[in-house]
Amino acid sequence: MYQAPSILQQARATLKKLRKILNVGPAVLLSIIYLNKGKSSMAQDARAGRYVMQLEGYRAFIPSRLPPSPPLKLHSSDMQMLLADANVALGRLDGATSILPNPDMFVAMYVRQEAVLSSQIEGTQSTLEDVLEFELSGAKRGAPKDVQEVVNYVKAMKYGLARIATLPVSLRLIREIHAKLLEGTRGGRREPGEFRRSQNWIGPAGVTLANATFVPPPVHEMNSALDNLEEFLHDRGSFVPLIHCGLAHAQFETIHPFLDGNGRVGRLLITFLLCCRGVLSKPLLYLSHYFKAHRDEYYARLMAIREKGDWEGWLAFFLKAVHEVSIEANETAKAIINMREKHRKLISATVSSSGYAVELLDYLFEQPVVDVGTVERRIGHTYATANTLVEGLVHAGILTQITKGRRYRLFRYEPYLALFADRGGPTSAPAGTTEGAQT
Asked: Which helix or strand (DSSP H or E) is residue 50 part of?
């Protein structure tokens, strides 16, 4: 009497046929089946992408193409209010450049502030004062070892802002910026200026691919996602600038195309896009101030895009950041103007050779940490004259000596630096942000 094969026997026979057709071992065959099962089961949550099991046994995130589909829900009253508030505040900040007596002179400090804060998000310990002293006289004993990374951020920002005059924001520009950022730093051996050729991951120190917090797309999927990102960067018609910028930043962070420095490059990308699209004429927006103060939410909002497709939640967070930082940066610009006028009057009343002293004051807004030798070169007079000017500003309460003794003296423009003080200070990198890579 004929007996039908059991379900288990049928499954075994089917697997045997598949192994023969595909010419693979049983472990690889099971991985393929699991991978395709994962694709179908997660399709409903694939608005921003999907997690796919790799043959090596870890899950990597494969981002969907931009723009998001289904389309963004941008017409709610709350989202429209956030967008309007951010645009108005950013417009006022951009208008502040017209009231600054020498915008480029003051922009240098805004750029340094962004560099310090963006780097501190990644765990660097260098402060604004460390950067200023390094720029003046190089590395000093006791200075944080990572100060070069922050100085490189400043250089990368300046390079990129000059470059976008002739080159649009593109993959080529992103690679060039990355090379500038990692030059001569601890990440200098991690393929600066080149997209990765191996898998990377994000998680607490010591984690592996198997238990990482987030695994970006593998290389072949990464290249496809980058091609789509570049198309989106060139698309100026689908979204207003702030929405376009917020989407691009989040997608870049998800792709994570470098072995090191992705967060800093992604935040530089924000500035380049805003300036390239004419929203900002000068880089006065230091968004990293908000991202650092709300770092847990910053990372959580990015993860919510990947896990829930919550683009709207991220964009609301991003627009609120633009709004609040624009207001703060605009207030800083007004305070700079008031301080400049107050100290000019003080110099005229209390300092001899006030003409040279006013010239020095303007220089301090660009370089608020100086030594006498620097002042000598700046004003083009003798060391004795420069020393007299510096001492006059010290007695007026404008400069403060920050070194002991009478040799190798450094002075800082304390009231001005106070305008850029970060009350939180440097902090350690949070769990979940350490970058790892295969070698």
From this structure: strand 49-53
Return the number of other C-beta atoms located less than 10 Å from residue 23's C-beta. 7
* CB burial readout 230-261, b (16+ within 10 A) else e: bebbeeeeebebbbbbbbbbbbbbbbbbbbbb
Residue 259 and residue 407 share a domain: no
- Name the helix (H) or strand (E) containing 434: strand 434-437
Q: Is the peptide bond before 168 cis (omega within 30 degrees of 0)?
A: no
Let me know whether 92 and 181 are in one domain. Answer: yes
Q: What is the pLDDT of residue 106?
A: 76
- For residue 248, which phi and psi values (nearest 5 degrees)? -65, -45
Domain co-membership, 144 together with 196: yes
Is the distance from CB of 74 to CB of 243 less than 8 angstroms? Answer: yes
Task: Give the torsion through C-alpha atoms of 413, 417, 423, 427, to 10 deg.
Answer: -90
Q: Name the residue type at position 268.
A: L
Q: Please indicate, yes or no, if residue 131 is contained in any of the structural domains.
A: yes
Phi, psi for residue 400 in degrees, rounded to 5: -130, 130
* 341: in domain: no
User: Are residues 147 and 273 both part of a single domain?
Assistant: yes
pLDDT at 428: 47
The CA distance from 151 to 161, in Å, is 16
How far apart are the C-alpha atoms of 238 and 218, rounded to whole Å? 28
Could you write out the DSSP letters of every residue in 252-285?
Answer: HHHH--SSS-HHHHHHHHHHHHHHHTTS-SS---
Average pLDDT score over residue span 283-293: 93
Range of the domain at 19: 7-63
* Model pTM score: 0.85
Query: pLDDT of 367-377, one tens digit each?
Result: 999 999 999 99
Residue 204 has what DSSP assignment? S
Decide if pLDDT at 38 tops 80: no
